[in-house]
Design brief:
The chain is α+β, with helices and mostly antiparallel strands and about 425 residues long. Helix content is about 30%, strand content about 15%. A hairpin with a 2-residue loop joins strand 5 and strand 6 (about 150). It is globular, with a radius of gyration of 20 Å.
Length: about 425
């Protein structure tokens, strides 16, 4: 239930992400190009800029499946000028060879955090939660011990990952996967686990535990579980028909891509065997990582958030108040607000959104860029090297920058890139 990160050190399943990806001919055969039909919700403009953008994005997906050997990659792009369109490369199911597509459901992992944070900020806008109020006000006695004190940690710090609370996921990284893969976990159980872990040594420390605590605050204030409140306030009003909380159901309902993670370490120069990670009890991530959705629903959510349908402008601005993120966890220059990542684009401006990775292999990202263009990405295998992760992020940059009219004043563009949100 992590967000994107470099893969050079051990990942959430304990393998070394630096294993070489020698893409054999059978893998290339399985990653043959496929493309989805144009979404009927929007017109497909055939301007040169739109065609350039589509071609560049499709090529960047091919880098992931062919050069890096990932099973499948899909994207949906929504743009006022170019319409809504989808593309995919590779396969959704290695067993059947079914092509990857952008309409399949997948586990969106930490993109769930932005849904939860939006509800918390809605409650703040209603005067029911104070962003700068201590956690103790809502959950007395919960955050205690090992140097932690809920009287000195604010709601904002939870959503911003500056609370100083460790990530409970760290307690599982070196344990056998099947020991915890199918288990049910309660939020308070996981929070207690996190409080016993060593305290982070950096001011900004990404922790899914923070969102579990925020979820309990929602429950305390509203009298309904955070899953029910996110459904009531966001999922149903926006008509996100493919988005739901799975609870203890280890399967994904409806059409979905399989997901894959690398098995035990393999000899140098060879690819570790893939393991099917589709079936999983994601109560381990809970409010911070359990949602199932589609690229289309993720785009609709971020479009509504930045389009003013979920929060007044003043409160969306609160979500966009950022601090520098740890570049080792995200990437250099990334900034973090209230469950929102801000990242500068080389072509000018910023993209805003969030991503996430499940232990089982699904990886998702949703973002909105300049001019309101939005992109939602889906992988069914986690990039295994730092270069593959970088090329995954390059799909986002390509989607926002390819086909844009170049500015005549490069100095203005450079200054815009360097500004901080």
């Amino acid at each position: 239930m992590t967000f994107l990160r470099h893969s050079g050190r051990r990942d959430s399943l304990g393998r070394r992400g630096a294993a070489a990806f020698a893409v054999a001919s059978v893998v290339l055969a399985l990653t043959a190009p496929s493309a989805d039909a144009t979404d009927p919700r929007g017109p497909r403009t055939s301007s040169a800029g739109c065609d350039t953008a589509r071609g560049a994005v499709v090529d960047s997906l091919g880098v992931l499946t062919q050069r890096h050997g990932l099973a499948g990659a899909a994207v949906e792009v929504v743009d006022g000028r170019c319409g809504t369109w989808r593309a995919a490369r590779g396969v959704a199911d290695l067993g059947t060879g079914r092509p990857m597509n952008a309409t399949d459901r997948l586990r969106i992992a930490s993109v769930s955090k932005t849904f939860v944070a939006t509800v918390v900020v809605q409650l703040a806008a209603e005067g029911r939660v104070g962003l700068d109020a201590p956690v103790e006000r809502y959950l007395p006695g919960l955050i205690r011990g090992n140097g932690h004190d809920g009287r000195t940690i604010t709601v904002r710090q939870l959503l911003q990952h500056t609370s100083g609370i460790a990530d409970h996921m760290k307690a599982f990284t070196n344990r056998p996967v099947n020991e915890w893969r199918y288990r049910h976990f309660e939020p308070r159980e996981l929070i207690a686990t996190a409080l016993e872990l060593p305290r982070p040594d950096k001011k900004w420390h990404y922790s899914t535990t923070n969102t579990l605590i925020a979820g309990l605050i929602v429950e305390k204030v509203t009298g309904r579980g955070v899953e029910a409140e996110v459904t009531r306030r966001i999922i149903k009003p926006l008509g996100l028909r493919d988005t739901y909380w799975p609870g203890d159901d280890i399967r994904i309902r409806g059409p979905h891509s399989r997901s894959y993670f690398a098995g035990a370490d393999a000899p140098d120069g060879t690819r570790p065997p893939r393991v099917d990670g589709t079936e999983w009890n994601v109560t381990l991530g809970g409010a911070g990582g359990a949602l199932v959705s589609t690229p289309s629903d993720v785009n609709r959510f971020f479009g509504a958030l930045f389009g003013g349908k979920l929060l007044p402008a003043r409160w969306l601005a609160e979500m966009k108040r950022t601090v520098p993120a740890d570049p080792e966890r995200l990437w250099p220059g990334a900034r973090y607000g209230l469950a929102l990542v801000g990242s500068a684009l080389e072509c000018g401006g910023w993209w805003w959104g969030h991503g996430g990775t499940t232990p089982g292999g699904h990886q998702a990202l949703g973002a909105v860029g300049p001019g309101g263009r939005s992109i939602s990405l889906a992988l069914n295998e986690v990039p295994g090297t730092a270069q593959a992760e970088e090329d995954f992020r390059a799909v986002v940059s390509t989607a926002f920058c390819a086909g844009r009219i170049e500015r005549t004043d490069r100095s203005n563009r450079t200054a815009h890139v360097k500004e901080t949100p």
